[in-house]
Specification:
- With about 250 residues, this protein is α/β, with parallel strands linked by helices.
- It has two domains: about 170 residues, no CATH class; about 55 residues.
- It has eleven helices and five strands; from the N terminus they run ααβαααββαβααααβα.
- Strands 1-2-3-4-5 form a five-stranded mixed β-sheet, with helices on both faces.
- Strand 3, helix 6 and strand 4 form a beta-alpha-beta unit.
- Helix 3 runs antiparallel to helix 5.
- The radius of gyration is 20 Å and the shape is globular.
- It starts with 5 loop residues before the first helix and ends in a 12-residue tail after the last helix.
């Protein structure tokens, strides 16, 4: 675990302080210049962060698209399987060898499942873990928190173009609630230039298209419009007049 892990030294202290208080949450959300959503009294269903992060299974449309576009996926040693004597290895080897009947079976199994949280032989993207997850009666907020990281996460084992925040958004596109996505960043890392350039990507439809090849234009636009921007940890500290621990050892 990193000495200055953002989850333990930033996210957890912040949301422990907020303590599911709607007024504090709205003050936090008000720092995002593009946010138009507010949290009404008694509307919170769940909040996930720190040790209680919410996990969200991948969309069925993504899982099916990956099966239909195996040649687009990264080449992964032993098809991502540790035990080459396993049923998963055998079936994945057949899949990548062009076994059409097995591919049809995989698609049928995906369509039948209520969710895709299990590590099955036909699943090539697992659950996503937002650093911050807030669900209300009409909205879902998902956020990524960065502190010492030098860059965003923009790939997975199987996909070379798969942005982490867009993964979170994608996993929510099949439900009707308003989605709001965001970053909380370290100003020092941002000032070095890379994060500044990365944040511009969330204003580009082509970037979302590249990450959501399995989605139609309407849903891609919805995904892009969910992005409410980014703020900095020191702005939060000043706004709430709170101090964050520097290292994990400083956490009380």
């Amino acid at each position: 675990m990193r000495l200055r892990d953002s989850s333990l030294t930033r996210v957890k202290p912040l949301f422990d302080f907020i303590d599911a208080d709607e007024e504090k949450l709205n003050r936090l959300l008000g720092l995002f210049k593009n946010n138009t959503q507010s949290i009404t009294k008694n509307s919170i269903i769940k909040i996930g962060y720190g040790d209680n992060e919410i996990t969200i299974p991948p969309s069925k449309s993504l899982s099916i698209w990956m099966l239909l576009n195996l040649n687009y996926l990264n080449k992964v040693k032993n098809y991502g399987v540790e035990n080459i004597d396993s049923e998963t290895f055998r079936k994945r080897k057949l899949l990548f060898s062009g076994d059409g009947a097995l591919k049809d079976e995989a698609i049928r199994l995906i369509q039948m499942k209520s969710d895709l949280s299990a590590r099955d032989w036909f699943i090539f993207e697992g659950k996503t873990h937002p650093d911050i997850f807030i669900e209300t009666t009409d909205s879902i907020f998902v956020g990524e928190a960065k502190r010492t990281e030098k860059d965003i996460t923009n790939k997975t084992k199987w996909l070379s173009q798969r942005d982490q925040l867009i993964r979170h958004i994608d996993s929510l596109l099949d439900q009707s609630k308003t989605i709001c996505s965001f970053y909380i960043l370290d100003r020092g890392e941002y000032s070095k230039g890379l994060f500044k350039e990365r944040m511009k990507l969330y204003l580009e439809m082509d970037y979302f298209r590249d990450n959501l090849r399995h989605r139609n234009e309407q849903l891609i636009e919805r995904a892009m419009k969910s992005f409410i921007g980014y703020i900095f940890w020191d702005d939060i500290s000043d706004h709430f007049n709170i101090s964050f621990p520097d290292k994990i050892s400083d956490v009380t």
